[in-house]
């Protein structure tokens, strides 16, 4: 059985750190906590779980802090988490089984990351990330912000899920780091270009975000998955700017890289729905609802566009077309995904009355 060092970097995480560590303390053979300048109770909480609490002077570089944390590890493999991540009971058991059965020839293990949720607890965004790496390979983190591990060798794609349970609101910290790098005249890496654009997007600086999304798209060796993802981001920027023609153009451009993904089908469905062209809208929403998962396990999966959203919209379209039975059926499906959604519940009650009147 392999041994595991859990390596984390933290700052002012007193509200989340204990929850995270409790979820993995029976899995990690060693816990290394690197503190980058906490002023709350974070270090005291960490010291209840491990003697390996180390200070690191923050230099606006997440990769440097991560690499320092990895350098403290002594076990066979290194697992990394953020303080607002957690392993749920089922995934804790899966990771324990993985620890017992992992072939030591494996260099790295990826895990699914449920990183965003709606207000009903449904996963809205799932990505896959490298989470466990062989220490002797001395893999290095790259990128001052939204850092990533550069790995090669034998990679195992596991079914373990890491769940993100964010408690703190968004800040402009990452945006400021990028802007400071630019002021210093430093050239952004391809990964930095993408993430700077996403920070601009998040802060509603849509025109500048598009500028950097396009710079990223123009690079060589951008993967089809990245191009699809960026098309979606640019489509949203154009929508927010009110440029519906460019929104349409970049939506259709995504079809150059793979079969139509459900998030783009929903975008087209909404375009027709707005114009009252319900038959056309039905076509695109049905295509979204029936879309299989991408064959690439590393694809970023937008869950609402393949689950409740197209069915709720199909319910609206069929209602407008006077087909109350189909409208009810699709609202029922949407309700299975969002059982506490009052709007869908109201739709079902209204449709039940209409269907009873026609009997």
UniProtKB/TrEMBL annotation:
It comes from the Bacteria. It holds the Pfam family Glycos_transf_2. Residues 5-111 form the Glycosyltransferase 2-like domain. SUPFAM superfamilies: Nucleotide-diphospho-sugar transferases, TPR-like. PANTHER family: GLYCOSYLTRANSFERASE, POLY-BETA-1,6-N-ACETYL-D-GLUCOSAMINE SYNTHASE. This is Beta 1,4 glucosyltransferase. It comes from Paenibacillus azoreducens. The lineage of its organism: Bacteria, Bacillati, Bacillota, Bacilli, Bacillales.
């Amino acid at each position: 059985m392999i041994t595991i060092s859990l390596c984390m970097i933290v700052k002012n995480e007193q509200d989340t750190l204990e929850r995270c560590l409790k979820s993995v303390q029976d899995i990690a053979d060693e816990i290394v906590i690197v503190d980058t300048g906490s002023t709350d109770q974070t270090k005291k909480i960490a010291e209840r779980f491990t003697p390996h609490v180390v200070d690191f002077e923050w230099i606006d570089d997440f990769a440097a802090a991560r690499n320092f944390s990895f350098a403290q590890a002594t076990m066979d493999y290194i697992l990394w988490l953020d303080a607002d991540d957690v392993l749920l009971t089922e995934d804790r058991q899966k990771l324990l089984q993985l620890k017992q059965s992992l072939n030591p020839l494996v260099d790295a293990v990826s895990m699914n990351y449920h990183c965003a949720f709606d207000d009903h607890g449904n996963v809205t965004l799932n990505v896959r990330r490298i989470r466990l790496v062989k220490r002797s390979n001395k893999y290095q983190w790259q990128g001052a912000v939204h850092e990533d591990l550069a790995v090669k060798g034998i990679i195992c794609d596991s079914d373990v899920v890491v769940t993100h349970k964010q408690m703190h609101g968004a800040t402009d910290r990452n945006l400021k780091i990028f802007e400071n790098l630019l002021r210093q005249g430093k050239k952004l890496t391809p990964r930095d270009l993408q993430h700077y654009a996403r920070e601009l997007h998040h802060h509603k600086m849509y025109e500048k975000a598009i500028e950097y999304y396009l710079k990223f798209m123009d690079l060589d060796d951008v993967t089809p998955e990245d191009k699809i993802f960026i098309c979606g981001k640019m489509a949203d920027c154009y929508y927010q700017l009110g440029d519906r023609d460019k929104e349409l153009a970049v939506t259709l451009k995504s079809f150059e890289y793979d079969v139509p993904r459900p998030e783009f089908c929903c975008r087209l469905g909404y375009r027709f729905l707005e114009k009252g062209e319900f038959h056309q809208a039905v076509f695109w929403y049905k295509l979204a609802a029936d879309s299989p998962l991408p064959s690439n396990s590393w694809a970023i999966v937008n869950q609402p566009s393949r689950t409740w959203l197209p069915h709720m919209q199909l319910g609206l379209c069929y209602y407008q077309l006077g087909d109350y039975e189909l409208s009810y059926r699709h609202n029922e499906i949407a309700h299975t995904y969002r059982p506490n959604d009052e709007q869908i519940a109201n739709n079902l009650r209204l449709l039940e009355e209409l269907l009873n009147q026609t009997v």
